[in-house]
Amino acid sequence: MLFNSYGFIFLFLPLTFFIYFYLLSKRLTTGAKGFLVFSSLFFYSWWNIAYLPLILTSMLFNYIVGNSLNSNFKTIKISKKVLLILGTIANLSLLGYFKYSDFFIENFNLALGSHIELLHLALPLAISFFTFQQIAYLVDSYRNETKEYDFLNYALFVTFFPQLIAGPIVHHKEMMPQFASKWNAVKNYTNITTGLFIFSIGLFKKVVLADTFAIWATNGFDKAETLNMIEAWATSLSYTFQLYFDFSGYTDMAIGAALLFNIRLPINFNSPYKSLNIQDFWRRWHITLSRFLKDYIYIPLGGNRKGEFKTYNNLLATFLIGGIWHGAGWTFVFWGFLHGMALVIHRLYSKLNLKIPVILAWFITFNFINITWVFFRAKEFEDAIKVLKAMFAGDLVLNYHWQEKLNFLNVNFGPWLQNIYANNDIFTWLVVAFIIIFSKNTSYYMNNFKPSYLNISFIVLISIYALLDMNKVSEFLYFNF
Amino acid sequence: MKNKRWIKLYFIVPAIIISMIFIINFVVDPYSMTVYNILKIPNKFARDDRVEKVSKLKTSPKYDNIILGSSRVYSSNPLMVTKYLGGTTYNAGVGTARVEDHLGFILLLAKLDKLPKNLIIGLDFYSFNSELETNKYFLKNKDLNFLNKRLSNESYISNFLSIDALRASYKTLKNFLKSKKSKPRFDENGASQNASKIFAYQPDEAFSKAPFSEAQIDEEMKFIKTISYSSISKKRVSYLKQIIKICAKHDINLYLFLTPLHGQLISKIENDKELYKKLRSLKNIIKSQTPYYDFIQHSQINDNPIYFNNLTHTTPIGGNLIYAKIFNDKNISFAKDFGIFVEQDN
Q1: Closest chain B CA to residue A14
Q2: What are the residues facing B294 on neighbouring strands?
Q3: ipTM of the complex
Q4: Distance separating alpha carbons of residues A235 and A232, to the nearest angstrom
């Protein structure tokens, strides 16, 4: 079930909300939580019920291992470290089997000239997210940083539907106390207004902005055989905005929906395209993934504690893992490598204490991100090279309507956006996108939202627009990761 | 403002506005999604050709000749077929028809026990594109849809809850209020553009037309390659085979032809290596199944814009020339090179 579907908006969400609080009003706390877990699993199964046993088994396994790792359990006979390694391997194996089998087989076949058939497994929805979440839980249990949570709260932590499919990647420390708190068992109208406001903004971002840019990005990357320079830039920028509005739109809807249940999910985006350097970008983009990579990969590798060279190595390794986490393909690895290298260069550069003008810093950072997204998006290196080559060495073609006025320019005139099936509207949308990325973000509204006639008028307007534009329902990009 | 008031407004205002939009779109029903037509609007913004033609076939007596095809076919004169073959003819061409539409009509005619003696089918090159989805009006037409695939409920609802539908409702209502007695889309023989009244083979001598522009050619190429013409649809080839089988089984004379494209577009396709490969491949596939008439060839007619409304649609006169060729009218000597009869041996 998608957040941007009529089924979710008009049936699932309101029904779950009312039944949950009805049960709580009758002091049936356990029943209410059980109902929320059931609803979340129903939400998950809507996509494909075949994978329901998978998430249930994974949840049960990690709960048992996590509790065994907790120092309060004295009954286990193997060392805690061995148990942690086994638990982590089990999680990674599950992820590896479903997500990376074909990637390994393909490369194995390529290297050894063998012909092992690909498995063509469907990637179970949310597997990357719930695996990471649960590995973090195991590591923290090993470090004695978890408490003895009951299974229902644990199940809710893993399956809570707003964050189940595509994050934010939540941490048990920030979620479990909220599920256990009695203060959260009553309807909170401040949370409801804020939640509805943020949910509606997310819906608009996804349905109106991301899905509009998606058409041009898909045409440019997947369908066009050749691109001129303007088409190539329009393609890359379209994807840059599609990805941001799609993922941050999803996250906003998740945050908004969770707030209705009095659960505050962590902020995942903090205006990332305002970043002035690459380090700044990773503090603002997919914040919960960056946090996970830092806490559970970069720091255990040694972080910056073992000298400069080792720090650079650790940074690069962390980003290579981040790259492959996003998808089983060399383009993702290369994207991770580019970002890792950029962080290393930024670190080296920072030592020189040189100051770059703010606008130039933003321009360089934004363009670096825009260019590297090309590798992230492209299905094959060839597609990425097609777009990049056209961005920097493509023919400059201008609209043939301008030929009379601009004939003095030594460029070609013709159908200038036809390969991406676009018209001049694309420029209006790009301007709108730039305005939005510099506007106040969800994080601001989460903390400063006050109901007013102005914001209700605004939200009603964009909600109606989004609802009327939902006839082109599409999946969220991060469902694939 | 208090939170509770804000929440009330959040739900009530959109609910009222959206309900109103739904009601307007449902009552006007610009895409003919329902069978009701509450306002009895004869010509809707996006009328459903399939509903109209299916209803005509159901209510009319059995025709001797049936023409099937897309908009490239429905503007041809069915009475020309009557002129050559005798009997009664109905042009059952519908907009953006794919091969599944043709098969759907034939299966329906079989079910109604109204299979004709002669079946003339115009096939479009673009419609064999495997990336091209089945037409949604075909999917929602219970009489034609033999695939048992349905539009999802969500896409059904979204047709009443979309900005496009609202815009279409507005245009439909505006047209309806302006001229309640506007002419129907198709005449009683199923032809559009007054084609049933046009029997000429040549336009007025004075009539001339400039070549099509590069922009028009690019636009049509974009249409043919919708998404990308990655391969010939195997499914659609199998539907074609089914049609041929049904015709053989019921002794129906099948006249198959590839609908004409204008010469400028043919040249453009010839220069597109991949697309040209697909065109040749399609021609070979059809040839291997049944003889047919190939009108995607350079000729005096194909290369002359006066016989074309646009690069892929002939005028009714162009349509007359197609029938003259198929039915071997020896009086039409000036169009000799228009269309080639193709069978396995040549």
Answers
A1: B11
A2: B258, B340
A3: 0.79
A4: 5
Give the largest CA-CA distance in chain B. 85
Exposed/middle/buried for residue A462 (C-beta within 10 Å: 0-12, 13-18, 19+): middle
Query: Which residues is B313 bridged to in the sheet?
Result: B310
Q: Within an 8 Å CB–CB cutoff, is residue A454 touching chain B?
A: no
CA distance A241 to A385: 20
Structure confidence at residue B100 (pLDDT): 94
CB-based contact (8 Å) between B227 and chain A?
yes
Residue in the structure block whose two tokens are 């830039």: A233
Q: Which residues pair with B292 in a beta bridge?
A: B342
CA pair distance A191, B5, nearest whole angstrom: 14
pLDDT per residue, tens digit, chain B (346 aa), is 888 899 999 999 999 998 998 898 888 887 766 767 787 777 666 567 887 788 888 888 999 999 999 999 999 999 999 999 999 999 999 988 999 999 999 999 999 999 999 999 999 999 999 888 888 778 777 788 888 665 555 556 667 777 777 888 888 888 788 765 556 678 889 998 788 888 888 887 666 777 888 878 887 887 777 667 888 999 999 999 999 999 999 999 999 999 999 999 999 999 988 899 999 999 999 999 999 999 999 999 999 999 998 899 999 999 999 999 999 988 887 778 899 999 876 6
Strands B292-294, B253-258: pairing is: parallel
| Chain A residues within 8 A of B10 when measuring between CB atoms | 193, 196, 456, 459-460, 463
Q: In what helix (H) or strand (E) does residue B67 lie, and over which residues does it extend?
A: strand B65-68
A263 within 8 A of A455, measured Cβ to Cβ: no
Distance CA A264, CA B301 (A): 70
Q: Do B1 and A5 count as a contact with CB atoms less than 8 A apart?
A: no
**By three-state DSSP, how is residue B240 classified?**
helix
Task: Tell whether A5 is within 8 A of chain B (Cβ).
Answer: yes
How many Cβ pairs within 8 Å bridge chains A and B? 79
H runs (alpha helix) in B60-149: 71-74, 78-85, 99-111, 136-139
State the burial class of residue A119 (Cβ atoms within 10 Å of its Cβ: 0-12, 13-18, 19+).
exposed
The whole-number pLDDT of residue B183 equals: 62
| Domain range summary for chain B, segments of one domain joined by + | 2-342
Active site residue A326: yes
CB contacts, 8 Å: B163 with chain A: 465, 468-469
Asked if B10 and A415 come within 8 Å (Cβ–Cβ), the reply is no
Q: How many CB atoms lie within 10 A of CB A454?
A: 9
Do the chains contact at A473 and B154, CB–CB below 8 Å?
yes
Residue for token pair 């043709």: B102
Q: Does the distance separating the beta carbons of A468 and B222 come in below 8 Å?
A: no
User: What is the Cα–Cα distance from A276 to A360, expressed in whole angstroms?
Assistant: 9
Given CB atoms, is A14 within the 8 Å cutoff of chain B? Answer: no
Q: Residue A73's pLDDT is what?
A: 56
Q: How far is A464 from chain B (nearest CA, A)?
A: 6
Min Cα separation B17/chain A (Å): 8
Query: For chain A, which ranges sit under pLDDT 50?
Result: none
Residues B91, B74 contacting (CB under 8 angstroms)? yes
B158/A471 CB distance under 8 A: yes
Q: Do A456 and B21 touch (CB under 8 A)?
A: no
Query: Which tokens go with A433?
Result: 């996108």
B110 touches chain A (CB under 8 A): no
